[in-house]
Amino acid sequence: MINKNAKLWFIDNNELFRGLSSDQKKSLQSLFEVNQYAKNDFLFRQGDPMDNVFFVNSGRVKIIKHSDSEKESIKRILNDGDYYGEHAAIDSTLFVNHTDSAKVMDKNTIVYSIPTAEFKSISVRNQRVYQRLVKNMLTDYRRLDNRLESVMLKKSRNRVIDFIKEMAEDIGKPVGYETLIKHNLTHQEIASLTGISRQKVTTILNEFKQAGLIHLERNSILVHDSKLLA
């Protein structure tokens, strides 16, 4: 059970809401609905109405698309503090229904949701929140464009390097002169993100390891050579 203090802590520590007054934070807190999900649960499916904005409090959620053959492609992974569905708060006429699905990756994942109309009202009344919202959306679109370019134009080795760079930027932690990336992804999930086969992902990561560029653990990558991230 999530108490009010936990909601306020989440709001206080989410950059999007920085600058809200105490009254605005309390109002936002009262609007948040809290749900706990099991692994492989769906927050929403393709075609569902975009009537809520979702915030990940703990755990991970993947934004996915299925091909005609039901092959799953991962477009984005939401980590703690990330949110999704804000597009409809910007333009509810352009963004009506979800074109993707959101699938939970970890057990006991906690997600806050707020009705899109209420979220839009809050963002419109606070210019800083609205500006951050638009900036973050543009950043997400830039990343998707970069990933599409990587899949279309780059060789497999460089796609894996791009993946490591993106993960380092998102969740990497400095460890001395090295960078630790606790990604908790399977090689199949990395393959889905990079558009190459699972076997190829394994081969390339092992080549990087043998070359002394990285150290591999089951759910993490320690980058030894910063040139890999340059």
Mean pLDDT: 91
Structural class: alpha+beta
Compressed to H and E, one letter per element, the order equals HHEEEEEEHEEHHHEEHHEE
Radius of gyration: 19 Å
Task: Tell me the number of strands.
Answer: 12
Biggest sheet character? 4 strands, antiparallel
CATH superfamily of the largest domain: Jelly Rolls
Overall body shape: globular
Q: Considering DSSP H and I runs of 4 or more, what fraction of the residues is helical?
A: 40-55%
GO molecular function: DNA binding; DNA-binding transcription factor activity
Domain Cyclic nucleotide-binding: 16-140
Pfam families: cNMP_binding, HTH_Crp_2
Keywords: DNA-binding, Transcription, Transcription regulation
Model description:
The protein has 230 residues and is an alpha+beta fold. Helix content is 42%, strand content 25%. The chain is built from eight helices and twelve strands. A four-stranded antiparallel sheet has the order 1-8-3-6. Strands 2-7-4-5 form a four-stranded antiparallel sheet. The chain has a four-stranded antiparallel sheet with strand order 9-10-12-11. β9 (173-175) and β10 (178-182) form a beta hairpin. α4 packs across α5. 29% of the residues are buried.
